[in-house]
Amino acid sequence: MAVSKNRLIFLGITAAISLLYVYMTWIFSPPDAVLGENVRIFFQHVAPALVAYGLFGGTLLCGLLYLWKGDLKYDILGAVSIKLGLLFTTITLLSGMMWANAAWHSPWNWDPRETTTLILWVAYACILAYRSSVSDREARAQFGSIFGIVAFPMVILSYFSIIIWDTIHPRVITESGLQMEVEHMMTLFVAMIAVTMIALIMVDLTYKVDSAYEKLMRIRMSRS
Amino acid sequence: MTSGFSAAFAIAKKDIIIQFRKKFEAFAMFLFALIAVIAFSFALVSGGSIPADVGSAMLWVIIFFMGMFGFAPIFLSESETGTLRGLATAPIPAWAVYAGKVIYGFVLMGMVVIFLVPIISVLFGFSFLTNLALTIAVLIVGILDLAAVGSMASALTMPSEAKATVFPLVYFPTATSGLILLIEITKSIVLGDLFIGIGIMGPEQTVMLLFEILLAHLIAMLTLSASVFHFALSP
Amino acid sequence: MSTKAIETSDLTRRYGYRVALRKVSIEFSKGGIQGLFGANGAGKTTLMRVISTLLRPHGGTITVMGFDPQDEPEEVKKLLGLVGDKPLLYDELTGIENLRFYSKLYGLQSDFFETQVEELSQRFAIKTWLEEPVKNLSTGLKKRLDIVRSLIHNPELLLLDEPFSGLDKDTTEDFQEYLNEFRNIRTTIVTTHNLAFGAQLCDEFVTLRKGVVVSQGPISEFDQTL
User: Fold this and answer.
1) C155 and C80 in contact (C-beta within 8 Å)?
2) ipTM
3) How far is C39 from chain A (nearest CA, A)?
């Protein structure tokens, strides 16, 4: 089975950048003045966080497109967005907790970003659970899209609500600034590119698998 | 076509009359609240009392959970008996059906909360009297906000195989942002002089800001839900 | 202005992975009583739901009394009356309260409403039961009240989904008589799986089987043995 030329090129570039990313994370970056070796977890945390929120935006977009056009492929993509979004949010939360533990000796501090990410995780999980409870494919797409669209601003607004909550309650643990060496900045930049590209590949692959599965179900149903 | 607002009010009125006759949801909500108060008291009471800001926050948490009893049946009952079809095929805009249900949800929750607030404020030991006007304003906006979220969540449970179980899953993520604001504003009221504002803003300015954000949140929720509602009514 | 009550072209609608209506192209003329025949699961209810704007087509086109139910749903809903298997009545309300509620949704003037209630409740023998909560009514009475509800706004197009199931003989004949009276001013579409009954009642017919049109035309062409 042939893979298209563009996909191969993309895969190649991703592989190269990923290797660069690993090198930079472990060898190129110097230990942080305050955190020591623990700084390396930072790079695995920021990029997945961006991807997690980005995929939630993707869910919103796919929901809108499905309601507008009625083509199931938008919903298949939306479902992929949710599943991978949950995965990346989990990675974000876990790596975040590791970093928080290293930096402030307490894995969870109810910082606005931490709390919003937790809410994001719950929102993703709820949408997923909701979708699995609707057996009619079209209804799942229709109502799942509505849920995704309504949930999006709510999660965004949570962020602002929490910021206010947070500002009113001065925190005991203040964020220790990372002395961002130039090497750290560069590594972070490369990390973001690498993780985003990996995420895109995952979205593409998962979409292909899910589409094929749906096609199979359709063929089976029309035969019976 | 019939005016959207008159249709919405007709639907709300119909549901209110039915609730007055059946009374079931209202009682269930009230009893749940009392049970929750007792359960929470075991967790929160130390030295015979609860800090005022914690108690008032629990009020909203309890109201939030009461929504499960009050809001879940809003569309569920119509969908199970089949009467939803009557609303969907009447020459009224889809948003009117949603608006009517939100009004009903607001009245239902409001009726229970009117009894609940004095009781809980005594049991949990806090007072709204420092700013009664703001309290009433927050209660109205807050309950309307939760009703808006709850009605939408109820509508979304219709195609699900496990309607009752799935309601909390849809309700909670969407209601959280409003809940946080409500708790914050209420705390400011009960803390009175003890409440400090944000940064350079004094307490009054902070509360006004919070209230404005809450209002914006309500309007955003209502307009968003009303716009997508017709996709839920005729899939 | 279309001369047809219903026109569909390659209408398609899916339920999950199953196709409920597959490229259905039919026509129903205005006026008279039209029949939609087919066994259970043939797609009759689905088609009725698409006509009444409850479901959006996944493919093809449909016009109802000249309007597209997706583009101009209010126009379609204004002239539509429907009766299905479940009565669209609220148990805790009385008959008259139910009717008054619907009259508000349809924007009926109060004198028009009063006349309609008077005539229809008399006609369908439910007048004495109007002040009774619906939950206390027998199935037959509920059905008759539901019929009155569907007619209260004097719809031009009446959709009846298996309307005669569960009705006693007297009510059935009475209802049939009523439908006949209004042949000229109203179009009625009836679904039924009872072909003999449908054949004697209807002017035109469409038969569906597994979501596909098997035959259609004036009732004179209807062959029960197919």
Assistant:
1) yes
2) 0.88
3) 18
